[in-house]
């Protein structure tokens, strides 16, 4: 079996990460998803989806702190804390 050079592995990894980011953004651009952004009932769920797809854990933690009752209403529990 032929092995990949470190350079080709980095190129593949970079291309794969770029592909994943593009696919995530495509999901947010789907008409059925993007219309949620301005929907009075579902705009916060759109924001949560956007956090999951495009941001980091700290953004979710901030969202969770500001919207804990919303998350509980959907059966989404608080993130476990260490310590």
Automatic annotation (TrEMBL):
GO cellular component annotations of the record: eukaryotic translation initiation factor 3 complex
Record GO biological process: cytoplasmic translational initiation
Domain of life according to the entry: Eukaryota
UniProt cross-references to InterPro entries, sorted A to Z: COPS7/eIF3m
Protein name stated in the entry: Uncharacterized protein
Organism whose genome encodes this protein: Beta vulgaris subsp. vulgaris (Beet)
């Amino acid at each position: 079996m032929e092995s990949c050079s470190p350079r080709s592995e980095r190129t593949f990894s970079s291309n794969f990460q770029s592909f994943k980011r593009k696919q995530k953004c495509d999901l947010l651009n789907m008409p059925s998803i993007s219309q949620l952004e301005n929907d009075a009932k579902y705009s916060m769920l759109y924001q949560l989806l956007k956090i999951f797809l495009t941001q980091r854990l700290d953004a979710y933690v901030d969202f969770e702190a500001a919207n804990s009752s919303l998350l509980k209403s959907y059966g989404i529990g608080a993130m476990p804390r260490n310590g």
